[in-house]
Amino acid sequence: MSILLVPYHQDERLAGASFPLAPGRAVTTVAPELPQGELWPRLRALYTAVADAVERDIHARADDSRRATPMPIVVSGDCLVSLGIVAGVQRTGADPAIVWFDAHGDMHALHTSTSGYLGGMALRFVLGGHPELAAHHLGLRAIPEERATLVDARDLDPAERDYLATGRVRRCQVDEIRPDILPDGPLVIHFDVDVIDPEELPGLRFPAPHGPSASTVLAAVRRIRDTGRVVAMHVSCPWYVPMGSQNDVRARLLEEAIGG
């Protein structure tokens, strides 16, 4: 199984130790040369390359019945990479829904974020909340809110709670997610590892206490993958460079998440 590795947290290139993938895994690294200067042109270059890689991978798998899995799996250092993944899936003619596993809502708008951290806006981008930044430059078509399922999101800011209370995004807990509550058609899974309780997964950039266990989350992801409708999966790893035995824990988690 080939993994698409995007070794970045936004436009920052991360050390190889940040992604302890199994030695036997075939890995294609997506790391284009980024332009100098402002952040958004750099991100646009990166996510365009991600979209290109996802589109190529899907077409290659369609032409090769020997592939172990019919979908690309993308491993990266932050949630914004999902913009390129969804754009790449859409280029193939698919109209996917999205299932977003995350400890956070990622639903901020530019004007509601107190930190300005773009990762806290990632799902809002996917749903078309900032077309001037995402759709126009990447060719990303907004996924309608009713085709989005937000799983867990136990750490929400007041502005995110207000937005979700009046919107059409479905919310559920990890142990509640099952195929019959998901929209019809193809699915993209976004799995931010910080959905897992930080006591079990230390070293996260944005830990949120009182989360589900890794086994509970992985079982939920498998339930969705077993539908056969998943066309791409993103494993987002917003964690710091590991210390001590942290890499052993992370390696086991990635291996189980990727499967195959």
Quick rundown:
By secondary structure, this protein is an alpha/beta fold.
CATH topology heading: Arginase, Chain A
**Per DSSP, what share of the residues sits in E-state strands of 2 or more residues?**
15-25%
* Total count of strands: 10
Report on the biggest sheet: 8 strands, parallel
Structure description:
It is globular, with a radius of gyration of 17 Å. The chain has an eight-stranded parallel beta sheet, sandwiched between helices. Strands 2-3 form a two-stranded antiparallel sheet. The model has no long low-confidence stretch (mean pLDDT 92). It has 260 residues and is an alpha/beta fold. It is 30% helix and 19% strand. It is built from seven helices and ten strands. The termini are close together. The longest helix is centred in the first third of the chain and has 24 residues, at 39-62. The chain has a single domain, classed as 3-Layer(aba) Sandwich (Arginase, Chain A). InterPro entries: Ureohydrolase (IPR006035), Ureohydrolase_dom_sf (IPR023696). Keywords: Hydrolase, Manganese, Metal-binding.
